[in-house]
């Protein structure tokens, strides 16, 4: 029995609480793929054991709760968190260097990008809390926006594929690439919008300065 079938069985038996619990555990870096967990939740909804819209809400709540707890562990304990064995295992020197490099590349936008980086997601949130690079509410906003994209994507994929198992297994791998491309497209559009907004502000300020100079 594969992991997907195992999770489908667990979720069928225990419902939304099991989905929430597994996603909460995923947030702590336990090697249970979040995407497969969400797809399994969608499958049981497709089979009639749950409501797909409620499943999306449970999924978003679960991933945000796990991410927030990881962030707060870093924020409260700082580098002392590395004394905890499971944290030291999760945030190895190599991963820490990778996270620092990504912070240099993306800045605070990494809080959004992290949701689409399996294996680095938990270390990124932990490091963000430890280094106080970003406030909790900015982290929560960016992570929440990303969750609003990724969670429904996987849940509805599972919902549709509940009765199309071969199709579902094929798109489980393809879906990762699609989700990343969608996230990057949204990030690019957001960056372009911010750039246009800043350009308009600069143009307005320049226009005001010209008018003042002419008035003098």
Explain this structure.
81% of the residues lie in helices and 0% in strands. The protein contains nine helices and no strands. The model has no long low-confidence stretch (mean pLDDT 81). The protein has one domain. The protein is mostly helical and 216 residues long. The chain is globular and about 75 Å long.
The radius of gyration computed from the alpha-carbon positions, rounded to a whole number of angstroms, is 21 Å
**What is the strand tally?**
0
Strand percentage: under 5%
Helix content: over 70%
Q: List the helices and strands in order.
A: HHHHHHHHH
Continuous helix count: 9
Average pLDDT rating? 81
Low-confidence stretches: none
Structural class: mainly alpha
Give a quick precis of the structure:
This protein is mostly helical and 216 residues long.
Keywords, separated by commas or semicolons:
single chain; 216 residues; mainly alpha; 9 helices; 81% helix; 0% strand
Task: Please give the structural blueprint.
Blueprint: H1 3-26, H2 34-46, H3 52-77, H4 85-90, H5 93-106, H6 110-113, H7 121-131, H8 136-161, H9 165-215
Helix pairs in contact: 1-2, 1-3, 2-3, 2-8, 3-7, 3-8, 8-9
